[in-house]
Amino acid sequence: MEEVVIVEAVRTPVGKRKGRLSHTRPDELFALVLEELMQRASVDPSEVEDVIAGCVSQVGEQSGDIARVSALIAGFPIEVPGVTIDRQCGSSQQAIHFASQAIACGDMDVVVAGGVESMTRVPMFSNRQEAVDSDRLTERHELINQGLSAERIADEWDLTKEELDAYAVESHRRALQAIEEGRFEKETMKIEVPSDDGQLSTMSVDEGPRAGTSLEGLSQLKPAFKEGGKITAGNASQMSDGAAAVLLMSRTKAEALGLKPKFRIVTRSVVGSDPTLMLTGPLAATHTALQKAGLSLEDIDLFEVNEAFAPVPMFWMKETGVDHAKLNVNGGAIALGHPLGATGAKLMTTLMHELDRTGGRYGLQAVCEGLGMANATIIERLEGER
User: Fold this and answer.
1) How many folded domains does the chain comprise?
2) Is residue 105 part of a domain?
3) Where is the Thiolase C-terminal domain (predicted)?
4) Does the residue 9 lie in any domain?
């Protein structure tokens, strides 16, 4: 088996829904990321053997295989193919897994994996049109809104509304601190974005984090999914626009190109979980990835567990015993946003840069997904080769 390494990773700043990225087409946004990725790595696009992109709402400007479309927009040679996948919120993390697997088995040597989502220009669920769930499916499983799944998780793990809101406040505090300290500057590309009047301006900072977020303020928000419930817009992830991409290679190819690998993929996992609770998969995915790697929770320096809703990382911490000081240290999707198809690659990019900044060795990322699934990935920083 070939050893799979990460040579480079980059992401856009994440825009709020109807924010600064609202006038940028998603196919063009992902193309900008692809161009930036190859420039940063000093790799000719002709070396790329596939572009694998996650995108959830594959309709409108995100239809027609956006991976291939964006690669063509970015000026990649016509010989470079592209494929777009949907594993819900973990789509671009799964893209990284598929790329890693293709390299590990020797089918390919150089693959770009990433994702994109414009939740402004292509609203969530727009790809479903007027479709309803199959009766044969609903006879087997109780299918409910993810917000109601989050409510049930909060109840099952005895998480109070105040605890959920306190977690959300901390997510914003950490994100704002990270921005103030410049922690995202290396991982985030600058992009020129048009405004309502057509004038261009430079965007380099995530729009989501809100200064002044407080327990008092969040306590005033109405429940979003259930009367008397605990889940509000304040303790759930933000709808967002953004893109991210990772350049993976076999170690042999990286060395042949004279490149120094930054990280290696240690192991990957994907699991199915209860489709009603839906968001509990990161726990099983975490344990599966650790078991495959022969590592323990104590071996991991940093964790990223996507903040789809506050109960997700909170129940995960209760079950694993991982200290919050090692989890989502620069804030998460509650503050920074959740551009569905891009989130997996975005989190991977952040995890890599934070391990670099702190000198950590191992990082583990887990993302919950619609209909009850989750991916987990463990990466190792290759300090001695930098």
Assistant:
1) 1
2) yes
3) 260-381
4) yes
Residue 353 lies in a domain: yes
Q: 73 lies in a domain?
A: yes
pTM of the predicted protein model: 0.97
287 is catalytic: no
User: Residue 342's domain spans which residues?
Assistant: 4-121+238-378
Residue 89 falls in the annotated catalytic set: yes
pLDDT in tens, 81-135: 999 999 999 999 999 999 999 999 999 999 999 999 999 999 999 999 999 999 9
Return d(Cα 18, Cα 305) in angstroms, integer. 26
Three-class secondary structure of residue 222 per DSSP = coil
CATH of the domain at 347: 3.40.47.10
Cα distance between residue 54 and residue 148, in whole Å: 25
**Catalytic-role residue among 55, 172, 353, 368:** 368
Tokens matching residue 100: 């890693």
Mean pLDDT of 277-302: 98
User: Beta 82-85 vs 50-54: how paired, if at all?
Assistant: parallel
Is residue 105 part of the annotated active site? The answer reads no
Q: How many CB atoms lie within 10 A of CB 227?
A: 6
pLDDT of residue 386: 44
Residue 197 has a pLDDT of: 84
d(CA 235, CA 31): 32
